Structures are given as C-alpha cells and as structure tokens.
Amino acid sequence: MKKVVIVSTGGTIAMVKNENGVVPYEKGNLLISEIPLLKNIGVNVELMEFSNIPSPHMTPIDMWNLSKRIDGILLDRNVIGIVVTHGTDTLEETSYLLDLTLKSDKPVVCTAAMRNIGELGTDGPRNVYSSVLTVLSPQAHEMGVMVCLNDEIHAAREVTKTYTSNVATFDSPGYGPLGIVDEDNVIFFRKSLTREKILVDKIEEKIALIKTFTGDDGNLLRYAKEIGYQGIVLEGFGRGNVPPNVADAVEELVNDGIPVVVTSRCFKGRVYPVYGYKGGGAYLRKKGAIMSEHPIGQKAKIKLMVVMGKTKNIEEIRKYFEPNISRRKIFYEG
Ligand code: ASP
Prior knowledge:
The chain has two domains: 3-188, Rossmann fold (3-Layer(aba) Sandwich), CATH 3.40.50; 207-321, Rossmann fold, CATH 3.40.50.40. Helix 2 crosses helix 3, helix 3 packs parallel to helix 8 (297-307) and helix 5 packs parallel to helix 6. The chain is of the alpha/beta class and 334 residues long. It has helices spanning 28-32, 60-74, 91-101, 124-136, 219-226, 244-255, 281-286, 297-307, 314-321, and strands at 3-8, 15-18, 21-24, 44-49, 79-85, 108-111, 146-149, 152-155, 160-161, 170-171, 179-182, 185-188, 207-211, 231-236, 260-264, 290-291. Helix content is 27%, strand content 21%. The longest helix is centred in the first third of the chain and has 15 residues, at 60-74. The strands form four sheets. Strands 4-1-5-6-7-8-11-12 form an eight-stranded mixed sheet, sandwiched between helices. It has a four-stranded parallel sheet with strand order 13-14-15-16, sandwiched between helices. It binds aspartic acid. Aspartic acid binds at residues 11-12, 54-56, 87-89, 112, 114. Keywords: Hydrolase.
C-alpha cells in the first residue's frame, strides 16, 4: 500500500510541560502519528523518528543529514511524500535547506505546533493532518518544500515565523500563502516562481549571521573571520545599508576572500545597491559585497551554506544571490 512517512525531529509538537517548563517528551513523536483521522485517508501513515530535539538545537549538519535521509526515504516507490515535524523556531531554516537541496520532487511538507501536547487547544494534530492532506494533493509535487500550519500552506523559501506565541505565526511577507486547507480540501492559489534547487555534495557549516546596529564599529564581523567563519551574512538596514565603520570591515573581509552577503532587517522587498555613500548598498557592492535580493537574513544564511558547498569564489557565489541586479534592462523582447 502507498504511504506517507512522517519524519519527526522534535519541537513543541512533541513536548509536554513539567516543573521546569515545556520540554521534549520521549513518546512525543509517537503520538504525532496516532491521530485517529489519519486512519481513514486511504494510505498508510508511517512514523520515522529522526531526532527529538528543540529546534534551536538543530545544527546545519542535522539539517543536511535530514535532507539526505529524506531523499533516501523518497526512493521507495510506495512513498508518496513526507511530512516533517519540527520546532517552529527554526522551521523556516530547515525547510528552506530541504527546498534547496532535496533531489526528489515528491511532496515534502513541514509542520509544527505552537501549543504543546498537554495544552488546551493544542494545534499539533490538526497541523499534521492538514500536512498529510497537502502531501496527497495532486498539485503538491509542483510546489517545492512547503510549510503547513494553521490551515495555511507556505513556500519554504518565503515563509517566516512572525509571532512569538500565536498559532497564526507563519507568514510569507510580501508573498502570501501558496494555498489553504479547508474542510479537508487542499486549495492552491499560486506557485512560487522564485524557487530554485542547488544540488550539492556537501554544505559549508561555518557561516555567521550578524545583525548590524547604529554605532556598530565592524569588529564583530572581523572577529567572526578570526574565529574561523568562512562566510558572513550581514543583516543591514533598509535597502542593504550599514554604518561607515562596518563598510571598512566588509571591505577587509572581501579582500581576504570571505564572502559577505548583505540582507536587510526589513523582511519585505528587495535588497538593492541604491546608496553610494559610505556604507550604502551601492558602496558596499563596489567593495565586493554581495546583495541578497531576498532580504531575510536567516534564509540567506541557509543559501550561503549550500552555495559554499559548491564554490568559495565570491563572483560565482554572487550569481546565486543577485539574479536580477546585474541583468541588462530589457523592457520588451518580442
Ligand atoms: N522552542 C520550540 C522549538 O522550536 C518552539 C516550537 O516548537 O514551536 O522547538
């Protein structure tokens, strides 16, 4: 019989509250697969435990191993697709790494819970059920890796956690959801046209994500290099601008062969080299910084980890982050 595999990694969806607070529950992952509604959907649902950790404990290597494990499971002809259960805190990172690196095109839907197993109105079972339905949708294989919570389906590349506590926490700012799950119907509205695959044999783990601030002297960036980081994602302001002393640090790092990818603390719109003053995006790019057109820092970090598994050459890396910036302006090609 055909099956959907739930690959569980931990998170609040597999946690309960004790005297210390909310913590992983050893049978938590098992409970995920025992939702009565999953018995009547015409396919088997099988559980495979990958880990049972809070998602802030997830490392780049865990994510990469998860990607390889999922590709292995998807080789089985009876497996229709996979639901990954995960903590919400870093779900946007893991799901994006899967989206970039999975070889298989079978549907993979990541889900989680904001309320733990024992909590009133726990959202885990509902989210798992909706995610299994999403995997079974005939349109799901065209959508890339998805994130499904609170009856909404989002593209892994676009989604981010926006609320510390509310069940309606996942959103795709500037894009909106791909679709919804409503009364057992999976309804897609759109496809993400910016999806890409970067197939690699390894990833570069040592990528730092550093947020700039007013008065920043750039020394945190320099220090990141000193302690062995191979690439840096720099979260700047607005269009991708930083204080002048940070611009000096960026220039030094680039001259030492360390790629610096500039993102923005704004999570909508595009990072773009507009400003030519010292520290402005155009200035930084002239000094060799890479503009990440997609502004969210944690997404750029995942992408840089993957791209640097392929190349360490700054100009090669640039091509992955700036697909439009250096393109010649063509208004109409008849
Ligand atoms: N701290 C938890 C985690 O990410 C939160 C969650 O699962 O929602 O593992």
